[in-house]
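Standup notes
- HV: blocked on the assembly model, inputs below
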Amino acid sequence: MNTLEGARLAPQATIGILGAGRVGTAIARLALAAGYRVKLATSKPAEENSLIIEIVTPGAEAVDASEAAAADLVIVAIPLHKFKDLDSHALSGKIVVDAMNYWSATDGEIPDFVNTALTSSEVVAAFLSASHVLKSFNHIGYHEMEPDALPAATGERRALAIAGDNSAAKTVLRGFIEHIGFDAVDAGDLAAGRHFEPGSEIFNGRFNASELNGLLHAVRLSN
Amino acid sequence: MDIGAYSFGDTQRNPDGSLGSTAQAISNLFEAIKHADASGLDYFGIGEHHTTTMPASSPGALISAAAAATKHITLGSAASIISTDDPVRIYQQFATADIISGGGRVEITAGRGSSVETFPLFGFDLQDYDELYEQKLDLLMSINDSASENITWSGTTRPALAHLAVVPRPAQNKLPIWLATGGNAASSARAGRLGLPVSYGIIGGAPHRFAPLAELYRKSGAAAGHALQTLKVSVAALGLVAPSTKEAVERFYPGWYNLNIEMGRLRGWPKPDKRAFDAQAAAPGAYYVGSPDEIAERIVHLHGYLGHMRHFLQSDIGGLPQEHFLESITLLATEVKPRVERLLAQK
């Protein structure tokens, strides 16, 4: 396991994105615009994705999943029911951002997520037991990501929540989120991700950092 | 440019807010299709949807009836949820409808559906989501591409066909089969690879952001050796046309509100926000709600990005009064279409 102490992403750090759907490609374009190197992978071999990636996320590299998993920060945006296709060995020691949701009304029931008190990201983290799993990007619509991203100097920009058990990993993700166009708010440990899962007020709205902090504070008090 | 409409059926609301009958919804839809044909609309897409508020579950049956009752309009599903249906049965129904239409007026649009009601309804497992879709699309295309009635096919999602007759053949040589997608890049690449026309369902965000997908679709198709003129793009979106933009918004918003209340109950959404509606209802948003001038301009603007050959609107949601639905169809056919053609000719 690599150490994360004092870690921040270098300006040219590599972002690995697993999943070239609407969420994965939107985050890829934001990361590219911010100057990161982006490696995108799906369950298919890299060459099958090269045309998709060349046109939809110009500047990103189509790679195999193992290469994306080796990046400085890995974002997972695949259909949640395929989470066991992730290579837990390749992702061991990595910061892995879970951008997925368990949303049975739209996606149907998935057995691993039905009879559990755990949040969906905790279920994913139990599978990726050697990774630093964080939850974020799940409470913003893919079609809102690029229109809502703003430079830091803009002030009242949209905020994204981060939940996770490793504070150094969260610092790394915070740097990434702030650099691509959003404020970041620490929501607490990974279990606290429940406060911005589908059905929550945070999931359904668009908030700046102080509003998001206020909502998180309020739900913590009511628990 | 084809101008059209599509509908999942729209169960009317009683004055006390309770739901009217699903039978009335189908009657209204059938009336709307006949009206569209008489008005000169190019295309009408139907279903497939399986909820009490949107009950157009059986596009094949409705399209057969419509094929007999109309003369010119092209009729298609929008879309057939092929994952949870039998492609043999879909093909037979649409081929039958095509013959009844006189030939050449019936199309299939193959999709996955935006929700999952059909999986428990027809006894399928969501875990097989991708496999079902891929195999059933393959079977549907195999039947369509076959030179004879006799089909041989095997897969894991339904029993194999060993030189079995699938009848009738359509009156036209093949049925147009469109691929419906909501904007996943891999789906555009797949449609291109298969050489199928692609239908984009754009329900939020700025439609011109689909431009890279249309480019990906055409490049994927060209790379697979398909001729550019066979690689067609259509756009399905929400919208309503009225004599003025103000009237269009006033007519469309209550139904949009009702639909979002209902969806919100299922999906945990908050109360619908009029600001969110207004943002989508004006250019460059996804809802084509406005006067004929405005809607024609917006369709032509999008054409600059997508080069699409058909633009069709879903208007009847959340209990839209039937008279407003019919007037929107009239305006699409008689006011929007000529403007679109004029504007495109000037380009």
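- HV (later): unblocked. The longest helix of chain B spans residues 322-346. Chain B has one domain: 2-346.
- Next: hand off to the docking folks.
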